[in-house]
Amino acid sequence: MVELTLTPGSLDLSTLRKINNSSVKLSLAKHAESQIAASAQTVQNVINEHRTVYGINTGFGLLANTKIADDELELLQRSIVLSHAAGIGEYMDDSTVRLMITLKINSLSRGYSGIRLQVIEFFMQLLNSEVYPCVPKKGSVGASGDLAPLAHMCLPLLSEGNMRYKGNIISAEEGLKIAELKPLTLAAKEGLALLNGTQASTAFALQGLFRAEDLYAQSCVIGSISIEAAMGSRSPFDARIHDIRGQRGQIDTAQVFRELLDTHSQISDSHVNCEKVQDPYCLRCQPQVLGACLTQIRQAAEVLLCESNGVTDNPLVFADVGDIISGGNFHAEPVAMAADNLAIAIAEIGALAERRIALLIDSNLSKLPPFLVENGGVNSGFMIAQVTAAALASENKSLAHPASVDSLPTSANQEDHVSMATFAARRLGEMANNTQGVLAIEWLASVQGLEFRKPLKPSNKVQNAKTLLREHVSYYDKDRYFAPDIEQTNTLLSEGKLCDFIDSNPLPSY
Fold this sequence. Notes:
This protein is mainly alpha-helical. The chain has two domains: 2-196, Fumarase/aspartase (N-terminal domain) (Fumarase C, Chain B, domain 1, Orthogonal Bundle), CATH 1.10.275.10; 205-312 and 329-407 and 417-501, Fumarase/aspartase (Central domain) (Fumarase C, Chain A, domain 2, Up-down Bundle), CATH 1.20.200. 54% of the residues lie in helices and 7% in strands. Helix 9 (199-229) runs parallel beside helix 15 (333-361), helix 9 runs parallel beside helix 18 (421-451) and helix 14 (286-309) runs antiparallel to helix 15 (333-361).
């Protein structure tokens, strides 16, 4: 369990990664309470002074010009939560909901949302009790906030909806008993403050970021194994090549490969004077391609860290001067574009890995037995495993199409341009699974290739990566039921074991 005393607006990526991976015990820094109270009082002053302010005593969206009577304000806030809880599809994983609630607490606690401390404490208690609202994955267009997902997140406040505890679906009433909580009556602005915001799309995008980082690291390790298996050259990783281009991601990636491959190995020494002039791009250009992916990962990380600490509801309360200003911070275009760039990076990591598999099984290129198996013809070896990798890489090409360029007007054209950030981020999980599947097959293929280079040994780290795999998957000496090998290797990748092979890790959340 992660224990965190939250200073609002100060979350870092490493902490968010930990919260994604495990439960959290959250408390709030005491100094934040005064700003929260001042913000809530500013909203109450509007009511006391009978002023009309959007989101406090008006309708929402196209109904913004409809004044709401004071005796209906509590009903207004309850109604907005219930009516906006219109999501559909499978429920988000607990990890996604945990991130989403943490992000919402972080945003509200900065004291610009006009919400009472007790509402924030309600959500902290849910997190600390590991009782998570059931939130459908689909239903947000990423503008005017992630309205439907956040509304489902808020239903337990009203003792409505379902929750999940230790993997079991229970009623909100049961969940509140476990968390030792009672339903709350929402005050003016609180429902809107909870529903506006980009926390659902940002949570999905953060998970995509963390997966992309892992895939990058794993691709560097497995790509290094393929270099040794294919008797590739170390020359393309010479620091001088990358320094004179100046691309930081490329420079750092080449450094990672140099550490993994070392200066030489028994395998590399055996072909110093070979006739081959250059390796195919899938080996030679790994610093350039994976370096470009690293640059996109870093850029997305910068955007998502900013969004994780930002205030994204509407209207915003500036208690120091008593102003309440309506704007558009709920528009998730930054998240959508960051997710689109992550999608490209994830797709390219998989595409390059698939090409390395294709090289290894092609005896003309790799000088290894056809399809990496003895007695070819009787044995098909890695023939269809490569087809599976090609299917996964190709599927990612369609999924990588940018979501942020799409928009459908909503709310009777009041909300006439939307970001599609939630889908842009949500699809990253499926894309990451595809690329991880490709890397699993390449890990199997590259280690199989090393078997045919015996008794020559690869670099120490490549040898260690081979040993790790062989502890779980045996040598493919003849055709056998292949799917369990891929599944076991995929599990090893899910556990992140290969990520530890990289010393000078260039990734933002590590």
